[in-house]
């Protein structure tokens, strides 16, 4: 039996959060951070991490 992906739970949580929040990433920052943490620990053993960017998102800073 194939081994379960160690970051599958976090990947599914991201998809669920994005769907529930009309794909607004800013509403899912906590679950995205959890995915990053998982990928830092398990990137070599996780297919889910292969498509997940390791870089932190750039912040849009505007001066008003």
Main sheet? none
Roughly what is the average pLDDT, rounded to an integer?
A: 84
- Sequence stretches where pLDDT stays below 50 over 5 or more residues: 57-64
- Count of DSSP strands: 0
Order of helices and strands: HH
* SS-based class: mainly alpha
Count of runs of 4 or more consecutive helical residues: 2
Share in β-strands: under 5%
Family: Belongs to the CMC4 family.
Subcellular location: Mitochondrion
InterPro entries: CMC4, Cys_alpha_HP_mot_SF
Protein name: Cx9C motif-containing protein 4
What is the element layout, followed by pairings?
Layout: H1 8-20, H2 29-42
Can you describe what's shown?
This is Cx9C motif-containing protein 4. It comes from Monopterus albus (Swamp eel). Residues 45-55 have a biased composition (Polar residues). This protein is mainly α and 64 residues long. It has a domain at 8-51. Helices cover 42% and strands 0% of the residues.
Give the key terms.
single chain, elongated, 42% helix, 64 residues, CMC4, disulfide bond, Cys_alpha_HP_mot_SF, 2 helices, mainly alpha
Concise structural overview:
The chain is mainly alpha-helical.
């Amino acid at each position: 039996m194939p081994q379960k992906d160690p970051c599958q739970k976090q990947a599914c949580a991201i998809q669920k959060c994005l769907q529930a929040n009309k794909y607004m990433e800013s509403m899912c920052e906590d679950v995205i951070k959890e995915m990053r943490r998982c990928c830092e620990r398990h990137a070599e053993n996780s297919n889910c991490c292969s498509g997940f960017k390791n870089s932190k998102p750039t912040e849009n800073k505007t001066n008003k």
